[in-house]
Amino acid sequence: MAKQKTTTKTTKRYRYSSFKSKIDDLRIEPARVLTKRAHDYVETSHLLASFDHWKEINLSAGFTNFSEEIERYIQTLPQILYHQDKISETLIKYIDLHDDKSLQPLLEVLAQFCHDLGPDFLKFYEPTVLSLIRLLEEAVKFESTEVFEWGFNCLAYIFKYLSKFLSDDLVTTFNLLFPLLSHSKEYLSRFSAEAMSFLIRKASSKNLEKFIVFSFNKVDNIEQSNLYEGILTLCTESLTSTQGALHSKSKTILSIIILSSLKSDNQEVTTSLVCDIWMNISKHATLENLEPLYSVVWKFR
């Protein structure tokens, strides 16, 4: 009798690419200057290109129904601009069905809709983010790693395309993301914090200080561990860069964080938070890269 081959049981662990990696990998075409609208530069639509791609390969009932309802409104860029309210309403309606067979194309079409509209998308920003939050909270129940990736990837695109404008008012995005930043599931809090940290780096010192003071005052006590950890990750991610390195704005950001902690209503908590932030960046950065930040800390001795 032939000897039976024995095999060991293996499992594949899902590895999520951080928001930092996703955003760094995104290519903003046709121009990286987001002060002007994308359709000022192109003759074709990114939404239409994405829609045509998915229409060929996704035959799910949900996306087919969406296609039949929306296709006549998106054949040209002028059409998309004219029917933008209808398109936004229809996208959110179908995304809110949470049909996992059609979510990936819907979310990619949504991201490219934002790409086409540029700053004109801002009026749809809040309902869009709220729809994504509903989706991600629902995904927790059935633990769909694909939905997490599609949803956060879509959010990453939107943040990238609108970063210049969103960084002017970080409090609005923070309030929208609050259910995720303070979520009991650590990965939702962490991914949301990573997303928000991208916008923090884009903010001016004035806007950043306003936001940090606001967020620190949200943490009333350390027992609110979910929000505490979310803000800790938020600040840590905004300061760090690639392995062993710190972000080019780390001195400015750290200075504002320390100053804001001194203005906080609860300095016991914020002092603890600043210490934890320092511990995190100390573990991340090399001694050479960390050394310039000692001068920042020394100013507040």
TrEMBL record:
Coiled-coil segments: none
SUPFAM superfamilies linked to this entry: ARM repeat
Gene3D superfamilies documented for this protein: Leucine-rich Repeat Variant
InterPro entries referenced in this protein's UniProt entry, alphabetically: ARM-like, ARM-type_fold, SSU_processome_comp_20
Gene Ontology CC terms: 90S preribosome; small-subunit processome
Protein name listed in UniProt: U3 small nucleolar RNA-associated protein 20 N-terminal domain-containing protein
Lineage: Eukaryota, Fungi, Dikarya, Ascomycota, Saccharomycotina
